[in-house]
Amino acid sequence: MTFEEALTLVSRVGLLMGALTFVVLSLVWLERKLLGRIQRRMGPMRVGFHGLLQPIADAVKLVVKEDLTPAWADKGVFWVAPLVVFVPSFMIWVTIPFAHDIVLRSLDMGLLYIIAFSVLSIVGLVMAGWGSASKYAILGGLRSAAQLVSYEIPIIMVVIAVAMLSQSLNLVTIVEDQRVIPYAALQPLGLTIFLLAGIAEVGRTPFDIYFAESELVGGPFVEYSGAHWAVMYLAEYINTFAIGILVAILFLGGWTFPFMPDIAWLGFLWVALKTYMVVFVMFWFRGTFPRLRVDQLMSLGWKVLIPLSFVNIGITAFYLFYGWPGWSLTLLSLLITAATGYAMYRRWTWPARATTAQRLARARAYGRPEVPNAG
Fold first, then answer.
1. Mind listing the pLDDT tens digit for each residue in 109-124?
2. Helix ranges (DSSP H) in the chain
3. How far apart are CA 39 and CA 24, in angstroms?
4. Alpha carbon distance 31, 333 (integer Å)
5. For the residues 177-195, what does the mean pLDDT come to?
6. How far separated are the first and last CA of the chain, in Å rounded?
7. Upstream peptide bond of 188 is cis (omega within 30 degrees of 0)
8. Which pTM does this prediction carry?
């Protein structure tokens, strides 16, 4: 590698790091404003116009905050863990394209590279819990390992189904194959599985069981402060944006748009819009759904998402092997998704319905008005 090539590579990496830092700051502001609106508040308003400078103020506060290390912690593991969490979340962006020609390095096995690197963050979370020498942190680390290993399986299976449709692991090729029909129209089941498993991968509500502020006071990060905690926080939002852009690339057609000229900056804006829409849905989930219990979380992964991911691969294989029309795969995916959603709704609302039935029975027995909420 010549000096000019090395300089170009370093400048690109620096530009990517700066862009991701800006993305994290924008996501922090967007999430706080959105959650404020959902909860009938205004969100940050004081620092800058409508609180636009609040994320920068928070970042400065974290950097200058005292960085404490517990005396009983394994200092080597404790200090390295944040880097093990952050580096894989940054490395996957090497091959994620923002447009047809806007990518650091387009790899033929790019999708495999992303999956292989993304799972390494699990090691950092376990190291953070173990190195802290705290029972709460260790429980959070073990929970994170159980959760992330479980939900990595449906993500990998959905990625395999997408690769089967496009016959490629190159992200640029996958996007170009969706110029006519995006894969979200062919595989709504795959899109649903990938989005839910992706939210669980980044540990966001309702899947933030290894943070569990009400139980573990912060999970594997409970002993971290200052810059170390900021690195963990940065990795979480980078991974959140990564899930959003992967949904946009794998299922929503990426930078392609019917009748739109193939212009790099226009494609970049289109990808960014799709990605922020997906992230908006993830933030909406946080403001709407309560946290799942540990048993519910693991049951959803092993009893619902993993079997459905195998079903998704099965119907995709039949569609490709027998040359079925595209609408048949769409119809099968929609039927399976709707049936599963209805079954889960009936299962999770059964206690409330049973309680209502008991109250009505007591009301009839005592001759009271049949009011469901009567005591």
1. 889 999 888 888 888 8
2. 3-38, 54-64, 75-91, 110-118, 121-131, 135-166, 171-176, 183-186, 188-201, 213-216, 226-250, 264-288, 294-299, 306-322, 326-348, 350-365
3. 22
4. 31
5. 91
6. 77
7. no
8. 0.89
